[in-house]
Specification:
Elements (H helix, E strand, L loop, with lengths): L12 E7 L1 H4 L7 H8 L4 E7 L5 H11 L9 E5 L18 H18 L4 E5 L6 H12 L11 H18 L3 E2 L1 H8 L13 H18 L39 H14 L2
Parallel strand pairs: 1-2, 1-3, 3-4, 4-5
Length: 272
């Protein structure tokens, strides 16, 4: 039954996913954002702030709107940019951001987060590699005879921007999930469905990589599933820092359910 000494939350914590189209699409069925929301059931609301087509320059311009200074401090913000920045300077000048500027803009995002949200954890995610044959195939299927046969993105450019992101993470002491390096190491382009965006397998890979990074670097907000059922949103699951939203169902006395919940909510509100 719900204990008067137990801790409950009147509203869940939040985790913000900030990025480009790869993040925007992550709430699709099986997407890494949807998987994170499932992982954090009853403990954190996962908020998708993916902006399709954006590079880091546009991300900085949108920052105060995406993460306003007066919002409740997020438990974690993932910063996942670079796929558009790493476009070829001549073939896609509109989205291209020079490598030096890319690092500067990532740092601006970090400076903003650290100055406005003192306790928020930050996780960098690098752009994935480019499956060049897969990207050419996609180009031909979409544009037919009008396809140029020339790619505006490449493995080389993606790798350079991923390395720059990882280097900045080291400088700023921010954990980095280097998708480009990890995916190239596995030599599995089944992670990408059009040479750029994530396939179902790719989304699972990214989710598992983010979860591992959280467990290794921010273990206080890692969720440990129930040993019996494997569920992350039940009384058998644990999380060191994130407080559950209301009692679990097996903590409620059915004969006085409303009274139990009302007492919990009154105590939580009076302590905030």
């Amino acid at each position: 039954m719900a204990s008067p000494n137990e801790f409950y939350s009147v509203s869940p914590a939040s985790i913000v996913l900030f990025g480009d189209s790869i993040t925007q699409y992550s709430f699709s069925v099986g997407g890494f954002g949807a998987r994170l929301a499932d992982y954090y059931q009853r403990r954190a609301d996962v908020i998708n702030r993916g902006l399709s087509g954006y590079n880091t320059e546009w991300a900085v311009a949108a920052l105060k709107h995406v993460l306003p200074r007066n919002m409740t401090e997020p438990a974690l913000v993932t910063v996942f940019f670079g796929a558009n920045d790493a476009s070829d300077a001549k073939l896609n000048a509109r989205q291209h951001v020079p490598l030096k500027t890319y690092k500067e803009k990532l740092k601006e995002i970090v400076d903003y987060l650290r100055s406005n949200f003192k306790s928020t954890r930050i996780l960098f995610i690098t752009p994935p590699p480019i499956d060049e044959p897969g990207r050419l195939k996609y180009q031909k299927s979409r544009y037919g005879q009008k396809a140029s046969g020339v790619l505006e993105r490449s493995v080389k450019l993606a790798s350079e921007y991923a390395s720059a992101c990882e280097s900045l993470g080291d400088e700023l002491k921010i954990p980095v999930v280097n998708l480009c390096k990890m995916m190239l190491k596995e030599k599995d382009y089944g992670y990408l469905n059009d040479g750029l965006h994530l396939s179902p397998e790719g989304n699972k890979f990214v989710f598992e990589s983010i979860k591992e990074a959280i467990q290794n670097h921010y273990h206080d907000i890692a969720v440990y599933p129930c040993k019996d059922t494997g569920a992350t949103g039940s009384s058998g699951s644990t999380c060191p820092h994130l407080i559950k939203y209301l009692p679990w169902h097996d903590e409620i006395d059915p004969s006085v359910a409303e009274m139990t919940i009302q007492k919990v909510m009154t105590r939580v509100k009076s302590s905030t």
